[in-house]
Specification:
heterodimer; A: alpha+beta; OB fold (Dihydrolipoamide Acetyltransferase, E2P); 2 domains; seven-stranded antiparallel β-sheet; six-stranded mixed β-sheet; 9 helices; 25% helix; B: mainly alpha; two-stranded antiparallel sheet
Chain lengths: 374, 285
């Protein structure tokens, strides 16, 4: 199977006139290694689909270059890029049956009939669509169309497989099963794939690395664990993780042996200086105002600590979300047991130095994660 | 569905009957006239009872018009042939030019594409007489007057905007991604146009072609001015029945029946498409 490497170099996409148009993708540089699955993750309008369409050749690159295996492809027509794609809107050919839709590219590549048949059968089995192969797109459900569209992309021997929200229409159980199967299928064949999604679970499950995009900019490009533990900026910090990271504005006071983080409503978090790498102290010394981020599952209820008042308490079946009023803002705590707390109850919370994420309040760039410098 | 009372059903039936009578009576009367002689047509009071005659049709088909005063040669069948040639030729040319143009307007939006498309549509707004005089002069200079090609060219004023606007709407309704999916599967844009876009817009192209055919067939003024007798279509040819010795109502009626038959059959056959086409695709479903 063919494997390849994709390189985007300072890619810009502007829709319309340069001065007044929409700047959908800004100065995007990233590399996808051969055999790697990369997820482009972001909210609607963040530029992820534009990026995918530029790679496929459906949108022109406003500036910058795209290379596959070192060969610039951004000026080639789609037909010459050897890229396969599964579309968010399925885009099956209405006059063809599901089987013919899936086999289409193989037929135009003039593969032997027996080979086409066995590959279609394999992909259909993988995606659980064997029973609808002889039906037409109009007569099957959205989820089935989506799987057919995915099958049409996966069956090809392309240099690169682009998957645009490939499982958005599927039921949760099926999605979970297919994620594992598709990942196995891609890895087994050594295919290189880019997946566009707004679903973190999907990005985590499928992607070897995740590129987080927002407002046309690549915010961070890293493994799922790194994104969670070491967000490069406040955006990634709050975007990744469910429920989102708690964020408080704070100012810093460095004493001889302690660090004081002063939050609103006179709440102060005190830590021993020894709990931080000296470079962290150096860095935050120069920053008067910063943003303090704490993951909800990192907040502990303790016998003594800072007081928070319970605003809401929800048991979700497998975890409890306790929403509290803390330092003039909202602090969400996640616990895995069912917790009996009522609105208005006061609790003490403890936040370990290891769980602090500090960001520059102006640039939003991460300063430290736990005791280490970012 | 709401229940309707028997009275309402009855009144609706009456209303529909009245509408049908109103619109169908002229056609019905003309069909009756086509089987009568001038004498029975012109008697007062008119009557539905008469002895049918095929003389009018015979005269048209044989090309000999017998009047009270003399025997005249008429070129009705030739006119009919001209109508077919001009309308079919005009629609074919308009399809060859208009379908790719419509695709281009639907898919490749540029700064001026809306303006150009609207300018082409605006040809339908201008009264034909406005352009006829300059056209006549140009055609004489270019040697195009009284040629089939010249007429087919002028008929583009009627056919091309129709095809362009109707087909464009259909192309716009096809998901671009379906075409992209085909292109990325190893095909050029031209193959995509031919094998995906055109077949998917097929009903729209058929509707536009039919409408253009009917409009071209019914055209009168261009052929009247720009062509001589042997190139004229039936619409103009019918004038020959207004003779020095009187108006040949029976033959005119027969000529009308024969000349509307093709368009009427087309309209009945492709009623659904025509309604879609006339509303520029607004009632698709």
């Amino acid at each position: 199977m063919s494997t390849s490497q994709l390189q985007l170099h300072r890619v810009d996409k502007i829709y319309g006139v340069a001065s007044t148009g929409v700047h959908a993708v800004k100065d995007l540089s990233m590399q996808v290694n051969a055999g790697e699955i990369v997820a482009l993750l972001g909210s609607s309008g963040c530029g992820k689909t534009s990026t995918l369409r530029m790679i496929a050749g459906f949108e022109e690159v406003s500036s910058g270059s795209i290379e596959i295996n070192g060969t610039p492809i951004h000026q080639l027509p789609p037909v010459r890029r050897n890229v396969a794609m599964a579309f968010e809107g399925y885009s099956l050919y209405p006059p063809l049956t599901v089987r013919d839709n899936i086999a289409f590219a193989l037929k135009s590549a003039k593969l032997a009939k027996s080979e086409i048949a066995s590959r279609v059968a394999h992909v259909a089995q993988l995606l659980e669509i064997e029973n609808i192969l002889d039906r037409y797109p109009v007569s099957i459900s959205g989820g089935q169309q989506q799987r057919a569209s995915l099958g049409r992309a996966l069956i090809r021997d392309a240099d690169l497989h682009l998957l645009d929200e490939p499982m958005g229409q599927l039921e949760p159980q099926l999605r979970a099963v297919l994620r594992a199967r598709i990942k196995h299928f891609i890895k087994e064949r050594g295919l290189t794939a880019i997946l566009v999604t707004h679903d973190q679970t999907e990005a985590n499950a499928l992607g070897d690395r995740i590129a987080v995009m927002e407002a046309g900019l690549l915010q961070q490009y890293d493994t799922a664990a790194h994104l969670k533990n070491s967000p490069a900026n406040l955006f990634t910090g709050t975007f990744i993780g469910e429920p989102p990271m708690n964020v408080f504005a704070a100012s810093v006071e460095l004493h001889d042996n302690s660090v004081h983080l002063l939050l609103a409503e006179a709440v102060t978090l005190v830590y021993a200086s020894s709990e931080f790498d000296p470079r962290v102290l150096e860095r935050i010394a120069g920053v008067k105002k910063l943003m303090l981020g704490i993951r909800p599952y990192a907040v502990r209820r303790a016998a003594s600590g800072v007081v928070a008042t319970v605003v809401a308490n929800q048991w979700l079946g497998d975890q409890t979300h306790i929403s509290t009023s803390f330092a003039g803002s909202n602090l969400v705590i996640v616990e895995h047991d069912r917790v009996r707390l009522n609105k208005g109850d006061e609790i003490s919370v403890a936040i370990a130095a290891d769980d602090l994420h500090l960001f520059d309040s102006e640039t939003w760039v991460a300063l430290s994660h736990g005791r280490n410098v970012a | 569905m709401l229940e309707t009372s028997p009275l309402e059903t009855f009144l609706r039936g009456v209303a529909i009957l009245l509408v049908i009578l109103f619109f169908m009576f002229p056609i019905f009367w003309i069909v009756l006239m086509s089987f009568q002689t001038n004498e029975t047509i012109l008697r007062i009071p008119p009557s539905f009872i008469f002895e049918p005659t095929f003389d009018n049709y015979r005269a048209l088909i044989t090309g000999k018009l017998e009047t009270n005063a003399a025997s005249l040669d008429i070129a009705f069948m030739r006119n009919m042939g001209n109508s077919v040639l001009l309308s079919v030729g005009a629609v074919l040319l308009a399809l060859i030019l208009g379908v790719p143009a419509a695709y281009s307007f639907a898919r490749h939006k540029t700064r001026f594409s809306e303006d150009i498309a609207f300018t082409l549509l605006s040809f339908r707004f201008a009264p034909p007489l406005l352009v006829l005089l300059p056209l006549t002069i140009y055609f004489q200079k270019l040697g195009l007057s009284d040629t089939y090609f010249g007429l087919i060219w002028v008929y583009q004023l009627i056919c091309l905007p129709l095809i362009l606007w109707i087909v464009r709407g259909y192309f716009e309704d096809i998901s671009e991604d379906v075409e992209y999916a085909y292109r990325i599967g190893g095909h050029s844009w031209f193959e995509t146009f031919r094998k995906i876009a055109v077949p998917l817009a097929g009903p729209g192209i058929a509707a536009a072609g039919l409408l253009a055919f009917i409009f071209a067939w019914n055209n009168f003024i261009f052929a009247l001015v720009l062509a001589s007798a042997d190139k004229q279509p039936v619409t103009v040819g019918a004038l020959a029945f207004v003779t020095a010795s009187g108006i040949q109502y029976g033959q005119i009626a027969a000529a009308i029946v024969l000349s509307i038959t093709p368009t009427l059959l087309l309209a009945v056959y492709a009623q659904k498409y025509l309604v879609e086409g006339l509303s520029l695709g607004a009632v698709k479903g």
